[in-house]
Amino acid sequence: MFKGLIGKKIGMTQIFNEEGLAIPVTIIEAGPCYVTQIRTLEKEGYSAVQLGYEEVHSKKLTKGELGHLKRSNIPPLRFLREFSAKSPELKVGEKVDVRSFSVGERVDVVGTSKGRGFAGGVKRYHFKGGPRTHGQSDRERAPGARSSGTTPGRIFKGSRGPGHMGNEQVTSSNLKVVMVDSERNLLGVQGAVPGARGGLVIIKEARKQ
Questions:
Q1: Distance separating alpha carbons of residues 188 and 91, to the nearest angstrom
Q2: Residue 173 carries which DSSP code?
Q3: Helix (H) or strand (E) holding 11
Q4: Which position has the higher pLDDT, 201 or 152?
Q5: Which stretch of DSSP H or E encloses residue 205?
Q6: What is the pLDDT confidence band of residue 140, given thresholds at 50, 70 and 90?
Q7: What's the predicted TM-score (pTM) here?
Q8: Where are the strands (E) in 40-168, listed by range?
């Protein structure tokens, strides 16, 4: 059975289990999503399901996006994402909601981490920095030497250093589902989920159980 949803991160809270222990929980508004397209091995060369999420005014979409959705009598949707699935057993136009998940299951949540802008090596990669003494008054957070002068005489690609931090795709793996509220389309997972409040997230069945 296909298990996948698109949603938005609402925020974090805590719930108490039967033993009275506080469990950190991230609340996600997941779905309802429409099945907008099903890709098959015979036609596209791979099997996948395309889901759409969040109804918007038609003026906010391009003519191509509107035509793609109107072909299947689906309302204008802001977000379209693909999920790999071998045998989805779904039809185009069908609705998918949080009832596809149940308490105790394990899921992977994909989101975009918070953007931190340009950051130095100490903040970005936890560099140690230089000593505070020995005449070093203004170089405490400097990265220091990056390579030798003659050989190689340059910095290799991919070397750690100052640069843009955050705003990258991050996956939180193997999170436990602790709450399913089908009336309000809410899903609660144990632990933290990448991104800011209101950020788009993708929930799918855990790859590593």
A1: 27
A2: E
A3: strand 4-16
A4: 201
A5: strand 200-205
A6: confident
A7: 0.84
A8: 48-55, 77-84, 95-96, 106-112, 117-119, 163-165
